[in-house]
């Protein structure tokens, strides 16, 4: 097995479009037998902010685009609440590019097989802010086992990518199952997190403007 942050020079030396084309024919794990479409990822390349979810569901598998089902529609609204528009302002991908049968949880071997694509995406997208939606994404990318209820809303650094600020957030599917908005609820926490994320984005924008003005 390769190490999580081992560079894959073969992929990183190619173009984004080429890597996407390779992923779309991928047969590195058994999910290729049941998928309809590979859901590589969607959004601007590069992009200051990127989100990594868990894995495609039925709607995503059908359309080949991430977060287009019920959870995806809620995600769109959550992002829009702080003026982050899809697909122009954020790049969205998943730890797995193919749908696990019946939406079962991603398996470690599938995530390992798929990791080089995500590593290549980080290389091409060059996000400054990385949102990890849900536990499988947090576990996989940050390699920590803390429950998401404890670490959401906190900033982390991505190992070997020290210039990327990472924030775990609740998965929108979890918010669909917990729709209350009262203080202290998952939705309330997500709203606080989104405001923090928006502040960080605005700060990045300001720094960019200042440096481009000499
Ligand atoms: N474990 C990891 O962390 N990454 C891999 O690619 C394989 C196993
Ligand atoms: N859930 C995810 O984690 N990703 C998607 O793309 C859709 C639903």
From TrEMBL:
<keyword id="KW-0479">Metal-binding</keyword>
<dbReference type="InterPro" id="IPR051536">
    <property type="entry name" value="UDG_Type-4/5"/>
</dbReference>
<dbReference type="InterPro" id="IPR005273">
    <property type="entry name" value="Ura-DNA_glyco_family4"/>
</dbReference>
<dbReference type="GO" id="GO:0051539">
    <property type="term" value="F:4 iron, 4 sulfur cluster binding"/>
</dbReference>
<dbReference type="GO" id="GO:0046872">
    <property type="term" value="F:metal ion binding"/>
</dbReference>
<dbReference type="InterPro" id="IPR036895">
    <property type="entry name" value="Uracil-DNA_glycosylase-like_sf"/>
</dbReference>
<dbReference type="GO" id="GO:0004844">
    <property type="term" value="F:uracil DNA N-glycosylase activity"/>
</dbReference>
<comment type="similarity">
    <text>Belongs to the uracil-DNA glycosylase (UDG) superfamily. Type 4 (UDGa) family.</text>
</comment>
<dbReference type="GO" id="GO:0006281">
    <property type="term" value="P:DNA repair"/>
</dbReference>
<keyword id="KW-0378">Hydrolase</keyword>
<keyword id="KW-0234">DNA repair</keyword>
<keyword id="KW-0227">DNA damage</keyword>
<keyword id="KW-0004">4Fe-4S</keyword>
<dbReference type="Pfam" id="PF03167">
    <property type="entry name" value="UDG"/>
</dbReference>
<feature type="domain" description="Uracil-DNA glycosylase-like">
    <location>
        <begin position="40"/>
        <end position="195"/>
    </location>
</feature>
<keyword id="KW-0408">Iron</keyword>
<protein>
    <recommendedName>
        <fullName>Type-4 uracil-DNA glycosylase</fullName>
        <ecNumber>3.2.2.27</ecNumber>
    </recommendedName>
</protein>
<dbReference type="InterPro" id="IPR005122">
    <property type="entry name" value="Uracil-DNA_glycosylase-like"/>
</dbReference>
<keyword id="KW-0411">Iron-sulfur</keyword>
């Amino acid at each position: 097995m390769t190490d999580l942050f081992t560079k894959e020079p073969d992929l990183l030396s190619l173009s984004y479009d080429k890597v996407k084309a390779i992923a779309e024919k991928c047969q590195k794990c058994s999910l290729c037998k049941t998928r309809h479409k590979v859901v590589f990822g969607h959004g601007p390349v590069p992009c200051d902010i990127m989100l990594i979810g868990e894995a495609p569901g039925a709607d995503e598998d059908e359309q080949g685009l991430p977060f287009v089902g019920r959870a995806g529609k809620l995600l769109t609204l959550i992002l829009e609440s702080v003026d982050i528009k899809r697909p122009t302002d954020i790049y969205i991908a998943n730890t797995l590019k193919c749908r696990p049968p019946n939406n079962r949880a991603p398996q470690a071997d599938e995530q390992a097989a798929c990791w080089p694509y995500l590593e290549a995406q980080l290389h091409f997208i060059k996000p400054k802010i990385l949102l990890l939606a849900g536990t499988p994404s947090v576990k996989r990318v940050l390699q920590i086992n803390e429950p998401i209820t404890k670490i959401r809303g906190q900033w982390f650094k991505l190992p070997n990518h020290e210039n990327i600020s990472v924030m775990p957030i609740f998965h929108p599917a979890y918010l669909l199952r917990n729709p209350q908005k009262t203080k202290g609820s998952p939705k309330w926490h997500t709203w606080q997190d989104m405001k923090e994320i928006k502040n960080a984005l605005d700060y990045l924008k300001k720094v960019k403007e200042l440096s481009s003005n000499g």
